[in-house]
Amino acid sequence: MSANAKHSAAERAYAILRRKIVSLELFPADSLNRNRLCEQLGVSLTPLRDVLLRLEAEGLVAIFPQSGTKVSRIDPQRILETHFLSASLSTEVVSRLARMPNEAVLSKARALLGAPDRPDETETSLMRTFFAGVGMAALCELIETRSGDLARCRNLAGADAPDGETIGRTLGEVIDRIAAADGEGAALAMRAHLSDRIASLSELQKTHPAAFVDQSGPV
Questions:
Q1: Residue 219: what pLDDT?
Q2: Dihedral of alpha carbons 165, 146, 126, 86, sign
Q3: Which end of the chain has a smaller Cβ tally under 10 Å, C or N?
Q4: Is this prediction's pTM over 0.70?
């Protein structure tokens, strides 16, 4: 297998395993059997190890030398830190966009709102569009690598999580404020949208305590 093919296989394995964790198909504290994962993902132990290290850096798995690997429990502190980072950067980004209107960015953003049945993908694509519009795409990637626990909370909330219509409405308000060259309004609308994402955190900790970090440790 060529180097490019190995890289592609590892990237595919990472994407599949991350999706299984974020979707809760693999639940917090579930044990991960490396040999079984190699078989399921079509990779050898070496690239699997790299995948797991990458997911560990994102807070999604915990590796215990000589003991095993588990899916990490959801860490509320990490969620709050990610929310702070995302709110700080995203509000500045949309404020800048409002000060330098770009019709291509606005047209793409409006088109993305046309897929309300896939709210997570719509939101991710919109945020990438906003950040790329001010030349800060790498910062959006930074936020995404820290957002796994937030996505798990959204899936844990199920029907109680903001739906596609709600997400479309709140992000539509952000787009409208940008188009109106209202930087302050765009920032406020973005902050309100992001706050909706963590509104149910405390309630989820009460109703699903086994899914979250407790005093005994991260898993």
A1: 52
A2: positive
A3: N
A4: yes
Phi first, then psi: give them for residue 57, nearest 5 degrees: -65, -25
- What residue ranges of the chain are covered by domains with CATH 1.20.120? 76-205
CB contact at 8 A, 218 and 62: yes
Q: In DSSP terms, which residues pair with 31 in a beta bridge? A: 70
Q: Which two tokens stand for residue 175?
A: 């787009």
* CATH class entry, domain 76-205: mainly alpha
85's CB contacts (< 8 A; 6+ apart) are: 142, 143, 146
User: Residue 95 is encoded by which pair of tokens?
Assistant: 């404020």
CATH number of this structure's domain 3-71, picked from the four choices 2.40.128.260, 3.40.50.970, 1.10.10.10, 3.30.457.10: 1.10.10.10
CA dihedral 87, 88, 92, 94 (to 10 degrees): -10
Residues of the chain with CATH 1.10.10.10: 3-71
Dihedral of the CA atoms 80, 86, 89, 94 (nearest 10)? -130
* Element containing residue 219 per DSSP (H, E): none
